[in-house]
Amino acid sequence: MNNPVKPRRSVLYMPGSNARALEKARALPADTLIFDLEDAVAPQSKTEARSAVLKTISQGGYGHRELVIRINAVDTPWGADDLEAAARSGAHAVLLPKVNGPEDVAAAGRRLRTAGAAPGLGLWIMAETPDAIRLIDRIVTAEPALQVIAMGNNDLAKALRLPPDPARTGLLHAMSGCILAARAQGLDILDGVFGDLADRAGFALECGQGKALGFDGKTLIHPGQIDPANEIFGVTGEDVARSEAIVAAWETAAAAGRGVAVLDGQMIEALHAESARRVLTLHAAICARSED
Questions:
Q1: Which DSSP category does 41 fall into?
Q2: What does the angle CA 56 – CA 58 – CA 63 come to, to the nearest 5 degrees?
Q3: What digits encode the pLDDT tens for the residues 121-140?
Q4: Closest C-alpha among 112, 123, 33 to residue 80
Q5: Measured distance CA(38)–CA(15) in Å, rounded
Q6: CATH superfamily of 10-232
Q7: Are the beta carbons of 124 and 151 closer than 8 angstroms?
């Protein structure tokens, strides 16, 4: 599966029970909004939150922003109703939490289609349990509608009994394994949330680490994290200039019947040109969103 290139630099969780926050989100510069019916909503407010999210999506006004509904796990009292409602909600995707194996993803895909899911409705999954990490290679092939993996590092760290660690040493193997699985299937993958809202330097460092590992963006818990995430996971002017130069060098070489070009002493092959074109496509998509 190869998904179209979409900016998913900043992916903000929004409590489904907070009507004021849902309203304000229409003006936030996030690429994606996740309307959360799970962790951010108390049990007694689950049904009310579901209705509020459905209403706010139906009202529109979110512009370019990708809209995702995180449902409750399907084995909870609310999960089945959440899934059925999300299928016809007008959202762009449904985020499935507490995935433990490929059968969870396949079953969710079937239920969405049975509930009348619109064509193109995507399925996202949380990678937040030891079983999800252990079986991620099978999970990512279980459902053709799958688009994105979102890391749930806090739940995973708890399950693995990891001590607090800014370097996330104990999570690196799991994160890298999920990135490999995502890329093998042409999926996007998002780094987990950073919980210390006062630690701006720590947030920036973790974003930088996530980008270096290969994540496409970061899930967020506060609007104040949007701008730095957009910057770190975005495309710089230097990136654009270098990518344009790579593509031009490769096209010149290809037109001359050569399989290799040289740019500033560096060998350029087809794979470099392909990567550069992706950078330029992402840049164009980001610019289009900024204009919107």
A1: S
A2: 80
A3: 999 999 999 999 999 999 99
A4: 112
A5: 9
A6: Phosphoenolpyruvate-binding domains (3.20.20.60)
A7: no
How far lies 225's CA from each of 9, 199, 203, 282, in Å? Answer: 11, 11, 8, 21
> E strands along 63-163, which residues?
66-70, 93-96, 122-127, 146-151
**Could you tell me the two tokens for 144?**
């053709």
Cβ partners under 8 Å of residue 91, min gap 6: 35, 57, 67, 68, 69, 121
With contact defined as beta carbons under 8 Å apart, do 173 and 198 qualify?
no
Output the CA torsion 129→130→133→138 (10° steps): -90
Integer CA distances (angstroms), 257 to 97, 168, 220, 252, in order: 50, 47, 47, 9
Residue stretches of the chain with pLDDT short of 50:
none
- The pLDDT value recorded for residue 2 is 60
Q: Enumerate the H helices of 161-236 as residue ranges.
A: 172-184, 200-213, 226-232
pLDDT (0 to 100) of residue 229: 98
- Which residues does residue 151 pair with via DSSP β-bridges, in sequence order? 127
Q: What is the domain partition of the chain in residue ranges?
A: 10-232, 237-291
The pLDDT of residue 28:
97
Q: What is the DSSP annotation of 47-90?
A: HHHHHHHHHHHHH---TT-EEEEEPPPTTSTTHHHHHHHHHTS-
Which residues have C-beta within 8 Å of that of residue 20, sequence separation ≥ 6? Answer: none
CA 49 to CA 18: how far, in whole Å? 8
